[in-house]
Amino acid sequence: MQSPQGQSNEDLEPGLMKALRRHLISPSVAPEEIDRAVARAVDRMALPVIWLLGTAQSGKTSIVRALTGAADAEIGNGFQPCTRTARRYDFPQAAPMVRFLDTRGLGEVSYDPDEDLAVCEAQSHQVLAVLKVSDTRPTEVLEVLRRVRKRHPDWPLIIAQTCLHDAYASIEQGHPLPYPFDRDDWNLHVDADLVRLIRAQREELADLPGSGPVWWVPIDFTRPEDGYEPVDYGLAALWDALECSTLAGLRARIVAAPEVHDAIQRAAHPQIMGYSLATAALGAIPLVDLAAVPAVQARLLHVLASIYGVGWTRRSAAEFLALLGTGVAVGYGTRLAGRSLAKLIPGWGQTAGAAWAAAASGATTYALGKSACLYLQARRDGLTIDPEPLRKEFTEALRQGRRLIGGRRPPSP
After folding, report:
1. DSSP sequence for 131-188
2. Using CA atoms, how far apart are residues 71 and 388, in angstroms rounded to an integer?
């Protein structure tokens, strides 16, 4: 690619540009220090935690796969033990935005769930009960939900009724379309056998204690080879329930915009959001090392390069920054400097200043990530990129980043 206006990269990058390249592409911070910085940020973020509660084979892992878009192998390798038999899954793993807790299937022989339930309950913000629709007497789940609701009467509860196809007469019957369960007269558009199962299960759990709202969401997440379309039946309804309960804004952070159809871009989006939230949390820490935020941003750029199947070199790093332009670089440096200075102002620096610093760090990370995707896509396809679209992408992504990240209030130090 030719640098803008025929100038060499060296002409465009005295001073600040060289510093940016050093911090973003070849940081002096050791990898383990970056890991510790991200871990510290995650601890401060108070991740939203979704507790998946259900029997074995009820579809809990399918829900994680549908919500995150992660592959089975990623999920299988990503679950980590939090007790002897309960597990947790952070997404994305390196810079997570959400944590799923999964207890072993309730009702299994020789399984005492008390330890798992206590650990998961202490960490959770949201209960997502998962019930196969054919299980019309979910005694074990009902017992646990009653105990949890007695201790947390105001907790919202989502109950996903899964495996709807178990009630279908045949594959040819298929899912009722359009999705009818968000309508008051849903029963008029659903086969009588499925109506009976759904109602029987809801009646069984009708007397749950507590005042918190309850959402019932029939879903059926299958694989393409199973023959049911769509494979993520009811996913939009599940997202709506999560957003209405306690997890507003999570969908926009995890899932790329609907107009983004490229699989690589969709895979990159949660990584960009995860690292943006991490740098926002770091940016709110008083007297945080100025190198920490650029070092974490550098980690993001390397993650994105891996997703696109290309690597950063000294030349490509200089070219990317040169294409962004000196104006973008100066604005970037000003935000980094202002972020640190703001937190040193007595009073204001510890409140509004910290919030501004967090939003500035996170939004800048988001903009760097999105513009890097545009650059890496061009490099992967062997194309020449015009600097103007790249700069426009950075500017627009900066606005988007402020909107997506600015609403997240940083926790107290």
Report:
1. EETT-S--HHHHHHHHHHHHH-TT--EEEEEE-GGGG-S-GGG---SS--TTSTTGGG
2. 35
Query: Nearest 10 degrees: CA dihedral of 372, 375, 379, 385?
Result: -170
Model confidence at 355, in pLDDT bands (50, 70, 90)?
low
Query: Among 264-278, 336-350, 355-369, which range has the highest average pLDDT?
Result: 264-278
DSSP 2: P
Specify if 413 maps to a domain.
Answer: no
> In this structure, are 67 and 21 located in the same domain?
no
Q: Is 276 within 8 Å of 38 (Cβ atoms)? A: no
**Residue type at 81?**
P
Residue 209 has pLDDT above 60, yes or no: yes
**251 within domain boundaries:** no
**Sign of the C-alpha dihedral computed for residues 262, 266, 267 and 271 taken in this order:** positive
Domain boundary residue among 196, 213, 246? 246
Encoded tokens for 147: 């105990």
> Which position has the higher pLDDT, 355 or 47?
47
Q: pLDDT tens-digit profile of 229-261?
A: 999 999 999 999 999 988 888 999 999 988 888
Output the domain CATH number for residue 203: 3.40.50.300
Q: Is the pLDDT of residue 413 over 60?
A: no
Q: What is the DSSP letter of 3?
A: P
299 three-class SS: helix
Question: 5 falls in which pLDDT band (50, 70, 90)?
Answer: very low
pTM for the whole thing?
0.84
Cβ-proximal residues to 224 (8 Å cutoff; 6+ apart), any chain: 231
CA-wise closest residue to 95 among 248, 295, 258: 295
User: Given this model, what pLDDT does residue 20 score?
Assistant: 65
Cα–Cα distance for residue pair 150/144, rounded to 1 Å? 10
From first CA to last CA, the distance across the chain in angstroms is 45
